[in-house]
Amino acid sequence: MSRSNISMMDLPDEMILAIWNKLSKINVLYSFVGVHQRFDRLVLDKTYTQSIELINSNAKHKHSMIVSILDRFYSYILPQIHKFVESLTLESISMERVLSVGTYPHLRKLTIIKIDQEFALCHFTDESPFSEIFKKQITHLTVSIIDAEPTPSLIDLTTNIFARIFSLFKNLTVLDFGSTGRRRHYSRLKISDPSLMICFSPNIVHLRIGVDTFDECLYLLDGRLNYLQRFVVRISKIYASKLTIDNRVLTNLKSFSLTSYIETREYDSQVVILLRRMVFLEELTLRLNVCDRLTFIDATQLNNEILIHMPRLQTLTFNIITFIKTFNGTNRKTINNIQYTFYNGKNHQLVYYVDFYARGKAQSHIYSIPYVLNDLNNISSNFPGGLFSCVRDISLIDIEFPFEHDFFLKISRCFPLLTHLFVLNIVPQKHKRPSQLNTTDQISSIVEFPHLTSLRISQGCIDYMEQFLIDTNTHLPHLVELNIHYEHLLIVTENFTRDTTRRNCVN
């Protein structure tokens, strides 16, 4: 038989399934349901029907799925597979139509993205046509609010939706609530009156959420969530608490993750005290910026103040920055070394380095390795390097020493999958590269960020805008978002006529 005459129908089941495994589940269902009885037998298997994700992940073609795929799912595919579906991921705008095509008797996991006020008022209520599914079936719920700046109205919306969820979803055990935004954009829960914040889902064992202050974190750990085992919280501001500190041991909590990017003075008085209540903890993750301590947070401090109180700890992941306004130590030489934390009966490596600045200021960085978090902040010119394959988002900040071209080469190699970059430096470069590259070495030393999609350069020295926009310095093949001062952009691009800046701005 000629190869040109072979069709899918001529292939054995095993080969068809091998081909389908290279496609997304949605494409397999869209392309093969209803085409032939044999394909239906293969495709109507739980491998393809158990978990359905109907969201558009390609921002450049935001309407393509709606036009070419979703209508077929609504009218033909979902009515056939709804009884097999256990997990649904969809946008709020399509939820009503998706849930209306069947009863979904086995649906347990629901993810809804881009929720707004109107959606919450309409659907997170007893009057919703889907209230029975929400009340009796859903055990795992993930929701995210439409991306927006964290204004007071957004905080109010977040709090309202949170209360409605706990009121309606009676059988929840896992709630992932609006905490997926990047560093500056995420929804926050604010509890003004804790007496009104009654949790109606006492079976919650896993909660991920963003909150406004440290008080909200304490409220959620005050006993109202009796069975909570895993708590992932992102806190906007850690201030001195208005609450009476509760020293009760959190007996059920096994995993805790705390992230806060804004500097706090309350590390010792708030954070450490809370962590000491978690004596049964097995996993701990910390991302903190601490200021106004007399000493740096290092391995000794972590061991003596926190880890010694967690005898069951198995996994520790952290990135902590300490900023001291007046450093009184006599040794101001560069500190850059490997230290060790001790838990689970073993020593564990970490990286510790210190930046010393004028007028007695200093900043320390300490983080666990291998580094598995997705961001790394306040990287200075003193950065020791390493491989950070999990990191997608970094900030480069230095107020006294320049970032030279070789530094950016180092950064590109340390963070091979970087997608978001922020740069702040007011100090001019001392060793600028020539505009014309004449040697092989110069050409091979062009900095390349192959996955970078978002670049933000704060107002400062124009050298860093030239560093990134001129293609003899840096290559940014996938850059789609550029945030820099417009006047500087005009200068660097020579009023958008400079040829060497076209390549990095083509997208």
UniProtKB/TrEMBL annotation:
SUPFAM superfamilies on file: RNI-like
InterPro entries xrefs: F-box_dom, LRR_dom_sf
Signal peptide: none
Coiled-coil residues: none
Annotated F-box domain residues: 5-52
UniProt superkingdom: Eukaryota
Name listed for the protein in its UniProt record: F-box domain-containing protein
